[in-house]
Amino acid sequence: MPPDFIEVYPDALDAGTCAGLIQRFNASGKAVRGKTGSGVDVSMKNSWDICLNDHAEWSDVVGGFNQVVMAGLKRYLRKYAHAVLAPLQLKVPDAATGELRALDAEAIATIDDGMLTAIITKVFRPGTINIQKYIANEGGYPYWHCELYPKANDNAETLHRVVLWSIYLNDGFSEGETEFLYQQRKVAPRTGSLLIAPTAFTHTHRGNMPRGGDKYIATSWILFNRSEVLFAPPPAAQAAAARK
């Protein structure tokens, strides 16, 4: 059976941390109506959100989420190497000769963690993170949508998205799945599990209404670095150019 490119990593975040984040969210007083790309429309998305990157007091949580997602992304790329290889040709120094050699899927699958982290840092960057609350028997994101789209006055940020991710912070309810249209797959929330999937229309999805309890998730994207970062010469070359 061919892969659907939807991966779920159980227990990516421990249950105690998830419970603490829910408590912190509810005590913060910072939640606002959730937006889509076109603004607030509760017929499309009915949630209460905090964009963590907008609030300095949440910086510790942003760092913690990004560490968890980095670990998941490494697992994802080892399975789906062409998420990074198809858009770009990557070369690294050969350990024996020092000459640059092109990486292939087998190399990505077996490369050491340090080198894979360096590749990810060069190619990708984290997006802004939302914690979202969907109220029982009321909230949800029923509109079928994808995460890759043009947006005015956004420096094409939404077109740089490669994969989406969600961490489910609780599971004390029924339904409330993340449902993927073309894959005909529903991912049931499980406390601490990490979902990673592509952002394009092929993975059109929606968030179903939770029944019998509120649903909390953290969600964001992994984006390509901008071209000035991706194609910047290495520091040695920059220094040599500056001396000329």
Automatic annotation (TrEMBL):
It comes from the Bacteria. Residues 131-222 form the Prolyl 4-hydroxylase alpha subunit Fe(2+) 2OG dioxygenase domain. The lineage of its organism: Bacteria, Pseudomonadati, Pseudomonadota, Gammaproteobacteria, Lysobacterales. Gene3D superfamilies: q2cbj1_9rhob like domain. This is 2OG-Fe(II) oxygenase.
